[in-house]
Each structure stands twice: as structure tokens, then as C-alpha cells.
Amino acid sequence: MNNELGEFIRRHRERISPQSAGLPGGGRRRTPGLRREELAQLCGISPTWLTWLEQGRQVSASAGMLARLADVLHLSGAERTYLFSLAERLDPQREAHEHGGGTPGELDAIVQAIQAPAYVLDQQWDAVAWNADAAALFAGWLDGGADPHGRTPNLLRFMFSHPAARSLIVDWPHRAQRLVAEFRADTSKHASQEPLASLIAELARGSGEFRQLWPLQDVLGREGGERRFQHPARGALAFQQVTLQLAKRHDLKLTMLLPLAAAAVH
């Protein structure tokens, strides 16, 4: 059985001195670092359960327990991200620990430097940064319209809940179907965890189309290609979409819409 998670925890347990974990360091030890019983006590879990986890048995580690392990083991941002990846769980503090970097100011600087509509989505597909060109294109989503609940602009909420999306996006039914398939691929095994689970439930309650599309289990990569719009003020527009993952923030995606020649707009 592949036991990368258990081996990772054991190796890092052996690197932590009792003193650094707030325990007395007296007495001789047969092995370096913390004993299993000590790590279990510090994390508030059963020593037997921790033993099973390190041995690779079929036990499930919750996100909260993994967070406690990461704190006690003094894991770096990269190590913490790797721990949650091995356990196939979402880090409840992923934005603060995702390799460092990617602050709001840095993200704003990135999108403002792009001479085309550009925006950055997080794992929930909330827009965390966008430029003026994107705000002008996506009326009703990124143009400063207030969310009735004060939430961050979300691409899926706009697509399935805002009337402007259906008139703005050419061939809305096809694009909506693709968007749901891309979102499923992007969320992978985390769709049942918060906050994604609540977002999916909200969309299913509020949109019959989403409610029909989500159970289909369609999966597509968020690839580039031509994107066409019928803008209320500028008329027909066409762009080439390019989506990139940020190197220091794997939970963020930068999307750019590069204008196509006027002849490409039909």
C-alpha cells in the first residue's frame, strides 16, 4: 500500500524536538524527535489512531486534525500544502499558507499590467482581482455591482443567477454546460468540503440549469479558445481566452481575454 502520508508525518515527527513542541526534553530516547504518544497528545487525538495513520491503514484524516498536525510539526507553507494534498483535503487556511506570495496588492498589479480583460479566480471561482477592462466587459459581475449579501464576485453565481450573463455570453447554454464541467474538474475531490459544498448547494437551489448539469459528471479542462460576447454598449466582441495557474499560488488561476481581429466577430 502506498503510504506517503504516513511516512511524511512520521519523518517530520522525528525532526521535532520535545522542547520545540513545549514538552520537557529530559531522559534518553531510542528514537529522535517526538514519540507518537506525545504528538497524539499535542494534537488531541488517539495514539492508536495516529499509529494507524502512520502505518497507512484506511483511516480518514479531517481537515481540522491535519491543521493541528501541521501546527505541532511546525510545517512550512509548502510542507503544509503537501500534507493536505497527500490527504486529499482542503486546508481551511489555504490562502494564508499557499507557498506565501500572491497578496492582494501583487494580484492587482498583475492584472492591471495586462492590456486586455484579465481576472484571477480562487478555488471557489471567486474573483479576487481584475482590471478595468474586465470590469467593462463583464457588466453585472466585475463592474462594481453590489452583491445583496456582500459576497465576493463569483463566476458561477454570475453565470447562473444574473440575467445579464444570458444576454452577454453568446451561446449561453453551451458555455454554461462547459463551465460546470470545468468547475467539476477544478474542484475534483474537494466538492463535498466547505466552502465549495455550500456554493454548489446554493447554485442547485437557485438555478434549474445548474441543478440539471451538475449530476451529469461531465469533466473538462479550463482550456483556451474563442469566447464571444454581445456587449450592451459595445456590440459583438470576440476574444481568445488564455488561462494560467500562478506558480506561487496553485489555488489561483489567471484568465486573460485577448482581443481577436474584428473580422473574427460574426
UniProtKB/TrEMBL annotation:
Query: Which InterPro entries did the record assign?
Result: Cro/C1-type_HTH (IPR001387), Lambda_DNA-bd_dom_sf (IPR010982), MLTR_LBD (IPR041413)
Q: Please give the Pfam families that the UniProt record associates with this protein.
A: HTH_31, MLTR_LBD
Database matches in CDD domains: HTH_XRE
Extract the GO molecular function terms from the UniProt entry.
DNA binding
Cite the residue spans of the region called Disordered.
11-32
Residue ranges annotated for the HTH cro/C1-type domain, each copy included: 33-80
Q: What is this protein called?
A: Helix-turn-helix domain-containing protein
What organism, scientifically named, is this protein from?
A: Pseudoduganella aquatica
Give the taxonomic lineage as stored in the record.
Bacteria, Pseudomonadati, Pseudomonadota, Betaproteobacteria, Burkholderiales
